[in-house]
Amino acid sequence: TDRLVVLISGRGSNLQAIQDACARGQIPGRIVGVISNRPEAAGLEIARRAGLTTQVVDHRLFSSREDFEIALSEAIAKWSSDWIVLAGFMRAFTPGFVDRHRGRLVNIHPSLLPAFTGLHTHRRALQAGVCWHGATVHFVTAELDGGPIIAQAAVPVAPEDDEATLAGKVLAAEHRLYPQALAWLCRGQLVLDGESLRWREFPPMRERCLL
Ligand code: GAR
């Protein structure tokens, strides 16, 4: 089974969803390590409770992004992982780091990309007045939140939604979406080929585009 390293910065609810999916066999893989760039991340406690090995690589202790990424790469390398899974990891990477891990680096982003890259996606979706919002799992490339899209989950925006309720709906969708996408990756159903996805076995549309 494939080996996953999960990178977090905060709460860790996606980490929990991925760990649960590994435990029930939905993802044919296992989490071999959890790395946080913040020592106070609540997700570290989730990881420890699940019996996972954790490591903190605190970006504030490094004078440059490159030095931080060298330490991060060393931490990742010692687990010889197949996949580097960003789950609420809130640091952008240099093109060098992305190139070194190309095709093995995936992220979940709380919007229907290419809409609302970057931060505060729920607030901006409400401001824009969109009817549909959601989450996207994608390969990480040098362009921020711009890599090829693996799967998406859409949620309807209700008139009474505020930032918090919308975030909650999207997060619930994320917890179904990320395990599904990681299952395809670990089964070898798709690979990153240059700038696009190459599917070996295309999943049913209802799995690729969750509602
Ligand atoms: C999730 O909503 C994830 O999509 C988002 O952070 C949250 C992490 O929650 N990621 C980003 O915004 C990446 N730029 P979690 O720590 O409970 O999984």
TrEMBL record:
Keyword DNA-binding: no
Residue ranges constituting the Formyl transferase N-terminal domain according to the UniProt record: 3-182
Top-rank taxon: Bacteria
Binding of (6R)-10-formyltetrahydrofolate, residues: R65, N107
Entry GO CC: cytosol
Keywords: Purine biosynthesis, Transferase
InterPro entries: Formyl_transf_N, Formyl_transf_N_sf, GART, GART_AS
EC number in record: 2.1.2.2
Site residues (Raises pKa of active site His), renumbered to this chain: D145
Keyword check for Translocase: no
Catalytic residues (UniProt): H109
This protein's pathway: Purine metabolism; IMP biosynthesis via de novo pathway; N(2)-formyl-N(1)-(5-phospho-D-ribosyl)glycinamide from N(1)-(5-phospho-D-ribosyl)glycinamide (10-formyl THF route): step 1/1
UniProt cross-references to PROSITE patterns, sorted A to Z: GART (PS00373)
Residues reported to bind N(1)-(5-phospho-beta-D-ribosyl)glycinamide: G12, S13, N14
Catalytic reactions of this protein: N(1)-(5-phospho-beta-D-ribosyl)glycinamide + (6R)-10-formyltetrahydrofolate = N(2)-formyl-N(1)-(5-phospho-beta-D-ribosyl)glycinamide + (6S)-5,6,7,8-tetrahydrofolate + H(+)
Gene Ontology biological process terms from the UniProt entry: 'de novo' IMP biosynthetic process
GO molecular function: phosphoribosylglycinamide formyltransferase activity
Pfam family, one: Formyl_trans_N
Function: Catalyzes the transfer of a formyl group from 10-formyltetrahydrofolate to 5-phospho-ribosyl-glycinamide (GAR), producing 5-phospho-ribosyl-N-formylglycinamide (FGAR) and tetrahydrofolate.
Similarity annotation: Belongs to the GART family.
Protein name (Swiss-Prot/TrEMBL): Phosphoribosylglycinamide formyltransferase
UniProt source species: Acidithiobacillus caldus (strain ATCC 51756 / DSM 8584 / KU)
